[in-house]
Design a protein that fits this description.
Elements: E1 4-7, E2 10-13, H1 15-22, H2 24-37, E3 60-67, E4 70-76, H3 78-84, H4 99-114, E5 117-125, E6 135-144, E7 150-160, E8 170-179, H5 188-193
Antiparallel strand pairs: 1-2, 3-4, 3-7, 5-6, 5-8, 6-7
Helix pairs in contact: 1-2
């Protein structure tokens, strides 16, 4: 569910403040990636130093692209192992999701690698007698390899609540995709596969030429796409 409040005549999202409060590891990994990026399209894999996020390493991970829409976990913190009840290194990221959510995760990975983009997903854990309610957030940001192409992802997964009986797998409640390059909107097919029906808003990239100031009677647009799907 998208959370917003009114400020004057504008609708302001309070999701960033909520994320920082409830999922501080997500905010720290995002800030670390942005610091490494330093105005460029994206940082390189070789620039990532675990000491830069030492206090939240248990939530962090690195993915390696193995095929379109497929990425395996190269490095992972203990929190991910605890959620799955096993060592997750070498597993595909989709293994941490219920079958009905895996196609959406694959499409998200394609966007992160190919557009490229960053992604923030709000997740819900599977429930049962020994599996209490579990809310989580997932952050994905691309990293360049030696060939200059994105082939790694720096990410974080943080869950709030008792893990209960592992493995805990997730569905996607909400998706936020931030395009890094261009204004190309999601196609209807992409929106459908991300479970976001009727989406038609354009992305605004971070590396574009300066945009001429808009007149005051035109509403301002944000610098990212907020893609919302509420499956509850």
């Amino acid at each position: 569910m998208k959370i917003e409040y009114l400020k004057g005549s504008n609708v302001i999202s309070i999701a960033p403040a909520r994320t920082q409060q409830h999922f501080p590891a997500i905010s720290q990994v995002e800030a670390y990636w942005e610091g490494l990026r330093n105005g460029r399209l994206m940082p390189t894999r070789s620039e990532v130093d675990p000491r830069g996020i030492s206090d939240i390493l248990e939530f962090a991970f690195v993915l390696e692209k193995i095929a379109p829409g497929m990425a395996r976990i190269r490095l992972a913190g203990m929190h991910l192992n605890d959620l799955m009840g096993m060592e997750v290194r070498g597993m595909p990221l989709t293994a941490m999701f219920l079958p009905e959510a895996r196609r959406q995760i694959q499409r998200t990975l394609e966007l992160v690698f190919e557009r490229p983009s960053t992604a923030r997903l709000t997740l819900s854990g599977d429930k049962g007698m020994t599996r209490p309610a579990l809310e989580a957030q997932l952050y994905l940001a691309p990293l360049k390899g030696e060939d200059g192409q994105p082939n790694r992802i720096l990410g974080a997964l943080q869950a709030n609540g008792k893990i209960g009986r592992a493995p805990r797998r997730f569905t996607v409640r909400e998706s936020e995709i931030n395009a890094l390059v261009d204004d190309t909107p999601l196609t209807p097919r992409e929106a459908a596969e991300l479970n976001i029906p009727g989406f038609a808003e354009h992305a605004r990239g971070f590396d574009r030429a300066p945009i001429a100031p808009k007149t005051e009677d035109k509403p301002k647009r944000g610098s990212h796409l907020r893609l919302v799907a509420d499956n509850d």
